[in-house]
Structure formats: C-alpha cells, structure tokens
From TrEMBL, chains A, B:
It catalyses: chorismate = prephenate. One of its GO terms (biological process) is chorismate metabolic process. This is Chorismate mutase. Coiled coil: none annotated. It comes from Zingiber officinale (Ginger). Transmembrane segments: none annotated.
Length: 260, 260
C-alpha cells in the first residue's frame, strides 16, 4: 500500500547518508551563525515594535527579515524545498526561471512548518543566552545576523521532512499503521533514538568549543581556551530543548500527512 | 601642527589594542563566511549579467547585493563608519533615528574606499579558489553567502582607516612629513611590518584549519583532518595577495588626506 504512494519524483539521492551528512554540516552553519550574532550585544531596540513609529508597528528585525525574505524570494530561494520562509504570505514571485530541484518529498511537505515556534524560541529563549546586555547601534548588522541564525535553524529543523521521508521509505510498514491511526505518540517513538540524540548534543557542544575558541599561534593556556565566544553548553541546550524536539514535530506532522 | 588637526570627536576607545582585537576577531568572520560560501558550488548563472533578461542587464548577485544594501541602509547600517557599501550611489535614507556612533576618524574617511577592487577580486580571483565547479540552483543562498563574504572583507579592509588613524596618533611627526610630501612610498614603508604580516598569514591559515575541519567525537585520523572545507593555503593567500595590500592602500589613501 505504501509503495503505491511514492513521491512524485523519487530521487536516488535521498539516502540516510545524504540526510545525515547534511544535518552534520548544518551544525557547523548554526554554530558559526550564533558566534557571529554574539559579536553584538543584545541591541534590544531592534526588537521593540513601538520604538520606531516609522516602521508601522513592526520591530526593526521584523521589517528587516520581511524585506530580506522578499528579496531572496525574488532570487528564487524558496523554490528549493529545503528553504522555508518566516513570512510566507507576502512573498513576491521569483524574477528568475525556476531551477529544477529534485522533488523527493510528498507534496504536502509545503504545508508543514514550525516557523512561528522557531521565531519565538530564537528571540525569547536563545538570544538572551548568547548575547550580553547593552547596545552598540549596529541594529542592521544585528538583524542581518539574526536572519542568518533564523535561516540556519529553520533549514535544520525543517530538514525533519527529509529525515521523516527517508525513515518512512526505509520501513514503510512500520509507519503505516501509526499514520492511519493518527498516533503521534507511536510515531514519536518510532522516530526517537536517544543514543543518537545524545551524540548530536555532545558533537554540537564540541563544535562550539572548537569554532568558538580564540585561535592563536601559541599553544594556549587553559584560561584562553575556556573563553568561548558562545557558551558550548548553551549550544547543547539549544539542540536538546528546541532543535531536536522541533525537528521531531516536523517529522511527525509530515508523516501524519504522508499518505494523504 | 598635527595635534591641532585632531578628529572632531576623539574617542578614548581608539587604541592600538582595540584595533588589533577587532582585526583578529574579523579574521574569524572572514573564515566562517568563506566556509559557508564553499557549501555551494560556483553556481555560475548567478554571475552572468545576460542570463536573466528580467534583471535588466545585471547579474543576479548584483541585483541581490544592491537590494540587500538598500534594505540594510534603511535599517541604518551605513551610519556606522566601519561599514562601507559596494553601491553607495543608490542607497535610501535610514528609516530610523541615527545612533550616535563615536566619530574617531577624520571626516575625509567617508571618501576613502576600495570597494570596486574588493568586488573584482572576490568574484574573479577568490571565488574560483574556494568553490567547486557546477551548479545546484541555490542562487539566492549563494548570493546571500557572497554578500556575507564581501561585507566581511570590506569591513576588514576598510578598517585600515582605523589602523592608520591609531598609527598616526601614535607618531604624528613621523607621518606628517610624508603626508605633506604626498609620498606614498614613504607612507607604505612606515605602515609595513613584515613580521606582523607573516604572523597574520600564519594565523588565518591556522583558523582555516581549525574552523574548516570536520569535527567528530572520535579522535580523528590524519585523513579526516586533512579535508578542510576551504583550503587553508588559499586563506593565507587571500591575506597575502589582497587583504593586506588593499588594507595598506586604504591606510595610505586615508593618511594622504588626514591633514586636509
């Protein structure tokens, strides 16, 4: 039964190894992005929707992200099913001819998104943990850095669609019963591998230590080595509390509609 | 004489240590940006000004950078004297109240820029060295990554204005004669410290090795360690052939007008 519902353009590329390599590589992008955001203090004025009346009741960062997504949509960013915008309703059409991206996901994948939850988590939970208080006036650069963080997190979390698809293809019969029963708990159980999650958390923590250290030509003493640009335990917590759980929500949401 | 020409708002912050720390930190940003750009293949269609007639004879990357600079200008990016746009002529006015950035440079600094040389170098010399041939359709993401690289390089190279200012303040009499004589060679000589340049090249190469490695939880074997995401010797060459020489051009151009 499940085999009849193969995606429209199955690709030989969709392998567990391809998905795994992409997820591992995206960890680097997320850590780089957080380190770059931490160059600036919190810069709270960028997040206050009533501070600049010229912006029509939106915060500077919202104006920036909406504008940047519009520009990137014109350049074709959201033609790639890996990319999910935060403000999908107002996007202009691409100015350029569509690239023929491989369509490996079920068409319902376009309706699976947790962007609002990522947005809320990033500004309310994560940002206070990676920035120091204060402001330096670099609101545009700050908003640009926020966008890079948001996009890296969104890509990683929504990659759950590919994770779910490859897991489903690997064992369609195991998933079909739970999908038909709309049993979220059973799906969550099928998708959860605690040992893998522990390994991911330890690896991103190590990446934060490696990429966030002050690299000098001298062998470093323990003091210098302990001054990371972003607290490695915060990066582990980001994955534990938000990235991994959000990804699993995406996986379950995708699977629940996988046989529609 | 030189002391009479102090900058309009001298800041206690402008110390050699502040400048040095900023330059060292910006090395990390540049290496991160190059590694992120190298995620994508060359994606040549993004650079072809005649491929998408809808773009009016501009390449996709130029359309993207112009649009992004416009958006960032509205959000106040170029109020910070550290930031220099690539397309300054068409920028919209900021939508937000100006932040009171410390004015530590001579006012002529606004007219000192080597943006065209950076643009040419980036696309013609550097990009072929850090990307593989081919295309994957991610033109918007590619252009966004190019922008991050370009901005990081521009900030680093135009930071030469601060380098020049702090060196000038440290020894105004040494510089005044050469400035009055408009002697570029003498200024270049005063500004050049080969041992420091060698150290910088070795450090950025090391950063490319540290940040561009594949971090795993296992102790790595020599094979894995040698697969860097961007060739460390290319990063050393980027500094040797372009970043350091361009920075010195900025320093000399700034100093030549420092007493205007």
């Amino acid at each position: 039964m499940a085999q009849e519902k193969a995606p429209p353009s199955p690709s030989q590329d969709l392998t567990l190894e391809w998905v795994r390599d992409a997820l591992v590589r995206q960890e680097d992008s997320i850590v780089f992005a957080l380190i770059e955001r931490a160059r600036f203090p919190c810069n709270a004025p960028a997040y206050n929707p009533s501070l600049f009346p010229q912006l029509g009741g939106r915060s500077l960062v919202e104006v920036f992200v909406r504008g940047a997504e519009g520009l990137q949509a014109k350049c074709g960013r959201y033609q790639n099913p890996e990319e999910v915008p935060f403000f999908p309703d107002d996007l202009p059409a691409p100015l350029i001819t569509a690239y023929n991206f491989p369509q490996v996901l079920h068409p319902i994948s376009a309706s699976v998104a947790v962007s609002d939850a990522i947005w809320y988590m990033y500004f309310n939970d994560l940002l206070p943990l990676i920035t120091v208080e204060g402001e330096d006036g670099n609101y545009a650069s700050t908003a640009a850095s926020d966008l890079i963080c948001l996009q890296a997190l969104s890509r990683r979390i929504h990659f759950g669609k590919f994770v779910a698809e490859v897991k489903y293809r690997d064992a369609p019969l195991d998933y079909t019963t739970a999908i038909h029963a709309k049993d979220r708990d059973a799906l969550m159980k099928l998708l959860t591998f605690e040992a893998v999650e522990e390994m991911v958390k330890r690896r991103v923590k190590k990446k934060a230590m490696v990429f966030g250290q002050n690299v000098t030509l001298e062998d470093k003493d323990s003091d210098a080595a302990s001054q990371y640009k972003v607290d490695p335990s915060v990066v582990a917590r980001l994955y534990e509390d938000w990235v991994i759980p959000f990804t699993k929500v995406v996986e379950v949401d995708y699977l629940l509609r996988r046989l529609d």
